[in-house]
Amino acid sequence: MILGAGAETWVVEAVAWGVQIEPNSRGIIVVVPAEMPTILATSGGLFPDARTFVRPAPLLDYALELGRPSSRPRLCFVNTAGGDQSFWNATMHAAYYERNVEVSCLNLFPMPNVADPASHLLAQDTVWVGGGSTANLLALWRLHDLDQAMRDCWEAGVVLAGVSAGSVCWHVGGTTDSYGPELRPVTDALGFLPFSNGVHYDAEEQRRPLFHRLIAEGALPAGYATDDGVGLLYRGTEMVEAVSEVAGAGAYHVQRGQSGEPEETKLDPRLLPGAADHSPW
Predict the structure, then answer these.
(1) Cβ contacts of 209 within 8 Å, gap of 6 or more
(2) CB of 202 within 8 A of CB of 249?
(3) Which of 67, 122, 188, 247 has a Cα at 20 to 30 A from 259?
């Protein structure tokens, strides 16, 4: 990975985690060991597919790559936010039939489908958390101690990633439709990352104004938002890069200005290999 100006804070933190850094003329090349805590928080990850309904898109491929698997990659889907629906588990398995990836799905409904969920998660290279109800996800994870299990995974170097609810959950909070069509704030997410998070920023008209208002009012801290197809890469607790699987889609940093008004700065994501020219949905 090449980092340019503005990543100094993360570099200091990375050194503390034992990351080897070698500078070059364009910036810094960072070699990240598996034990470096990594989160990829996205508004994407899947493209439609005529044969299997959906297929892994570049963001999901990138999440698996970040896990730096030493052999056959191990990928676990956690679809708590969507109610652990059997058809979705089957869809995720089907999407990988012709890929050399060991896929599993961790369910909590009607009971955990493995004897020791924490150990199962720790055995993965990458954990991908699906979308749905952020509020229900947080409640059930806390009931089943998955909040602590996820922190243990993060600290151990298992890559944590996901879409929508699976993006917001790692932050302090964000906006959610968990309670109905009118979006509401969620302010009690896991807080691994000290920022707020906005998802589907360009696709759902309520998202941006509510995100702005919550930050301006101090209900949420400054944070980052993603258009559909964009992800935020965090190393430790620093956001180091925005990446995209759709050309033209953006990421954004939003903070409360000195006057109390929200200030939004657009970030230009790096386009991932295999990115689409426009949204395929």
Answers:
(1) none
(2) yes
(3) 188
The SS3 of residue 32 is coil
For the annotated catalytic residues, the residue numbers are: 164, 200
Would you state the pLDDT for residue 70? 83
pLDDT along the chain (281 residues), means of 10: 42 51 42 70 98 97 94 96 97 96 97 98 98 98 98 97 98 98 98 98 96 98 98 97 98 97 98 97 92
SS3 at position 166: helix
Closest CA to 165 of 117, 198, 130: 130
Residue pointed to by tokens 């928080």: 41
Model pLDDT for residues 83-140, shown as the tens digit of each residue: 999 999 999 999 999 999 999 999 999 999 999 999 999 999 999 999 999 999 999 9
Structure tokens, 218: 């101090």
Please choose, from the candidates 160, 168, 111, the residue with its C-alpha nearest in 3D space to the C-alpha of residue 135: 168
Domain with CATH 3.40.50.880 in the chain: 35-276
Q: Mark residue 222 as left, alpha or beta (left: phi above 0; alpha: psi -120 to 50; beta: remaining).
A: beta
Q: Judge whether 118 and 1 are in contact, CB under 8 Å.
A: no
Cβ atoms of 101 and 72 closer than 8 Å: yes
Q: How remote is the C-alpha of 118 from its chain's centroid?
A: 19
| Rounded Cα–Cα distance for residues 165 and 163 (Å) | 6
The domain made up of 35-276 has a fold known as Rossmann fold (3.40.50)
Q: Give the C-alpha distances (Å, rounded to integers) separating 231 from 96, 122, 135, 160, 209.
A: 21, 23, 21, 12, 20
CA distance 230 to 162: 11
Among residues 145, 46, 129, which one has the least CA distance to residue 82?
Answer: 129
Residue 117 CA to residue 111 CA, distance in Å, equals 11
